[in-house]
Amino acid sequence: MSSVNRRTLILGGLAGAGATVLTSGTAHAIGYPFTLGVASGDPAPDGFVLWTRLAPSPLNADGLGGMSSAGVTVEWQVASDEYFTSLVRTGSVTAVQASAHTVHVEVAGLQPGREYYYRFRAAGHISQTGRSRTTPAAGTSPAFTMLFASCSHYEAGYFTAYRRMAEERPDVILHLGDYIYEGTASTTNVRKHAPVSEITALADYRVRHAQYKTDIDLQAAHAAAPWLVVWDDHEVENNYANLVRGDTSPAGDFRARRAAAYKAYWEHMPLRASSIPVNENMQLYRRVRWGSLATFHMLDTRQYRDDQACGDGTKVCAAAGDPARSLTGAAQESWLLDGLGQRLGTWDILGQQVFFAQKLASADGAKSMDAWDGYTASRDRIQRGWDARGNTSTVVLTGDVHRSWASDLMLDYSTQNKIIGTELVTTSVTSGGDGNAADTGLSSLNPHVKFFKNLRGYVRVHVDSTRMLADFRVVDKVTVRDYPVRTIQSYAIEAGNPGLVTP
Ligand code: FE
Ligand code: CA
User: How far is ligand 1, taken at its centre, from the CA of residue 272, in Å?
Assistant: First the structure.
């Protein structure tokens, strides 16, 4: 089919659905621009964010995606059906080079608790169709399914887990950080990073984000449901803490590097304008209510933290318990405790990055100083805070460690006194490569830690007003494409009765 005929067909189809027809002068002035797919995020009762980026040549080294300096009009449509026979909202925005021709549309005016479909059109090209949904109205508590994932290293394997997540048709997907990795390209992995050097400049972060989003399995997961995203370290640099860099290479101004990384992150994620970064600062922690059933407290455990204690390893020193040190920063801590105290829904879900429960690594007390074990006073204030406020249905969702874990959260870990919450830790999408189902990670040092598995995958959680049912979903290999997914362990968590139980 010639491009002219295809264009006529596409425009005809849209015109039939009641859309305005583009002027012919702009049609096909650029190559197919929707190479990075579409996404939606941060749902509310009346809308959500729609995202796309115009990038006919997504890996161009200048990070501009093959676009000129001209602004380009992008039309968007939201329909109540996937064939776009019933349009409910339409509009247009101008994509500009200052934000790498990314598009963020905050749709409002929709009905609560409903599924919607969306697509874009620019320069005569039509995007893929995405599926999203609004959250239920306050006061209602319909059951829903969420998936959560983290640690998706492009080189370490294929994004089969993302494909399987799309196939689950969940109501919402959480990504808990390490969405990209900043390192130098590998010579031995199944795929190879672009650009090849460790990324530090805005153009390089843009190319890296674009490369990840060229993956069709990731595109499928974004198109399947609205996402709630928070970052960890690798969106900027391994194990950075606030403005303290993780290592000295490459040299350069870390403040400028963080500003570049945060800008590229905002550009490529379906986030609201309230998160637009200002220099090296970006407001990422936020609350999203799911009716009166659940409240997501999405945390930022990188931007405000004190530097890792004791040299950022597993060696423990007194600083790890210093009450003056914080993982969240004081402002985020009071925002979290205030939100927990509002008791907005049956479940309080903390979407965050690093291992929350105490995890002794050896009899001499070694623990990870990058995780909450390196900030024990900070953890204690938050745990005691929700316990004191009567929150009995608090569930912490975690990424970062490239293994599946599940734990009871204890008011006092040393005496194992009182279960006050539950932690579910997702394994990686790919990071670390193929796992090993025979690995063992449980230890009598940590009796509150109940489950460990070293395979790649994600976690699926069915949520209703009486319980959560969590399924650890795994694939046996990621270095080979298209493995099936299976549930390797399930737990229930009862509302009002914290801790893991057999379903
Ligand atoms: Fe990771
Ligand atoms: Ca990490």
Answer: 25
